[in-house]
Amino acid sequence: MGGIGLVNAIVFGVYGNVQRLSNDPNSLTSHFYAGSIAGVAQSFVCAPMELAKTRLQLSSQIDGGLKFTGPIHCLKYILKTEGIKGAFKGLTATILRDIPGFAAYFVSFEFFMRQVETPSIPYTLTAGGCAGMSSWLACYPIDVVKTHMQADALGTNAKYNGFVDCAIKGFKNEGPQFFFRGLNSTLIRAFPMNAACFFVVSWVLDFFNAKTGMDSVVNSDQPLTLVNLDNKSQADLETTAPTVEEVVRKIITDNALSHQYVSTPQEVVQNHYTSSTINISKESKSRLASDCNLK
What we know:
- It is a single chain.
- The protein is mainly alpha-helical.
- Helices cover 68% and strands 0% of the residues.
- It is built from twelve helices and no strands.
- Helix 1 runs antiparallel to helix 2 and helix 2 crosses helix 3.
């Protein structure tokens, strides 16, 4: 309970900040890289957390049957008997699991949310649940190996020398089914867990970014957003730059150029586009001036 909150804070925090730095934050490739980096970042907290959880759940079978009073006691015991390296046992496997896991997590959620124009709350919950299931399907075999490594006994009683050794021995003893043991129950758990996770994160972000507080979120017709990008509103992301022809047509329509005197094409641009309502580049302004002469 204590660890999962910190893990998700790191995941969504890193994911959101990587998105802000992306040149194309709306592309699925951007979501893939942001999810992968978030997976690596949280692994350094997740690995010792899951190690302590596994040892607590199996304390009667490993560590000489020692009874731990809680996760802190367990981690202190691991640090005392195995050192820092022991506390991060399974870190490599956790990173290997969470790179594809969180990449699939965010890409699939974004994909599902794009299938409808205005996602409803039930649809958002469904998309989050399906994203969680997609994530586990992408990384479950690696998670099985990681769990076996962390549940392994200590010292001379240890059965595995590392990630590869654990995978090979497991495959030899049980065949391919070794890598998929418990998959069904994991998928059943993943749907409600991640449906709630994505929805709550989206709801909280919208709540704190809303000008009028809770009512603007609960009663809003706008879809929930997962990441708010600095200097980019939703309207900015959805609006494409006007073409030169569209700008010229707007000038002619709005200002009736056929009935007004304008000294130069450059003056048209200067007079009518000094505000920030339409932003056009220097190159586009030159082409615009040329097109005005033609028209």
